[in-house]
Structure formats: structure tokens, C-alpha cells
Amino acid sequence: MFDFIQNLEHKLRLPLPGRESQLKMAHITRRFYLDAPEQARQAAVLAALFLKNNEWTVVLIERNPNDNDRHGGQISFPGGKYEPADSNMLATALRETEEEVGISRNEVKVLGGLTELYIPVSNFQVHPFVGFLEKHPTYVLQEEEVNSVLEVPLSIFQDPSLRQLTDIRISASLTLKGVPYFDIDGKTLWGATAMIISELVDIITAP
Predict the structure, then answer these.
(1) Would 173 be classed as within a structural domain?
(2) Per-residue DSSP letters for 107-160?
(3) 151: left (phi > 0), else alpha (psi -120 to 50), else beta?
(4) In angstroms, rounded to a whole number, what is the distance separating the alpha carbons of residues 35 and 48?
(5) CB neighbours (10 Å) of residue 180?
(6) Full residue range of the structural domain in which residue 24 is found
(7) Domain assignment present for 165
(8) What pLDDT shows up at residue 68?
(9) How many domains does the chain have?
(10) Hey, which of 4, 21, 73, 111 would disulfide with 202, CB 3.0 to 4.6 Å?
(11) Residues 6+ apart with CB under 8 A from 206
(12) Residue 69 pLDDT exceeds 70
């Protein structure tokens, strides 16, 4: 089973599929907002993988609803914005993961990074990283931000029937039609997180 981790680490060192893979799970309008402006804020997230019931599983979080957070209530990876004390974007991902769900940075074996992704609605350029946990994580949630943890088998994201389209209400005056999303036990996983997962899945399934 651990050959999977070694193989994934190797693949993450090769040229990444990048935007082509990301856009498979993006609304059509995202093609107009691919490049981050110079004033974009920087953030990082971590896709933490571990074995559960002999199946590779990823840690996701469901954020608390928050009128001041454009991503409130959404499913995402643990992560957050870069702070001046962070030595680099990987340090941001590890620190934020530890703060939000209690996974110590010392428990994470970093396998590599995925393609950066710009989120126009919040003006963040996100740097995704992939890590491996040797044992099932013990969670300590940052309750003001995190509602719950979702442990999702990677096989879910490889099931074409769980890639669907829906309408997403962005604001009182804007609804996006035909947005790709993953159906996670009735929960809608869409947007930047779905785009990052799309690239990760393409890397995993590549020959």
C-alpha cells in the first residue's frame, strides 16, 4: 500500500498537469481569471493523506458559516493566509493545518506541491501541498472557523458519477449556473478545492 505514497511523491516531482486538470472542475467563467494580479494575497493549503480501512483518505474541513468570509460554510482543505513569520508557503500550510485541525507539522511527511491557483472572489493565490500521515490523525478543531472534519476516500473523487453540475448562489444578485462539483455524502464540494482535487486525481491516475 505504501508504494502508492512513493509513486505519488515521484509524480509530484514531474511536470504537473496544471490548469488543464484544474479547469475540469471549474465554472466556465474561471477561464477569464487564471492569472493572479501582483497585489493578490498569498495562502497555502494541505492535502493530508492517510490510510483508513485500507483506503487512502484525505482530510477536508467544513468551515463555519461566516458573513465576513466569502468561503464560509464551504468544504475545503485545512489552510489559510501567509503570515510574515512563515518561512515559506509550505510553512504556512503546515502552521494553518496545525491551528485549524490540530495535526502537528511534525506528523506530516511532505510529498510535494500542486499547481498554484488564483481565487478571484477573495483575491488569494493558493499554494497547495500534499502530505502523508503515518497514522490516523487526532483532531483538535479551531471551533470559531471549523465546523467539522471530513475524511474522504480518494476513490470518491475518481467516481465519475459523483462529478455533477449544480447552480451556486454567490450573492443575493448572482447565481452561477452549471458549476461542477463533487457530491460528498450530499455535501457540495466545489470551487478552488474541487479544482485542486481534480489535479491531484489526474496525477494519481496517470500511468
Answers:
(1) no
(2) GEEEEEE---EEETTTTEEEEEEEEEESS-------TTTEEEEEEEEGGGGG-G
(3) beta
(4) 26
(5) 20
(6) 3-160+188-205
(7) no
(8) 60
(9) 1
(10) 21
(11) 11, 17
(12) no
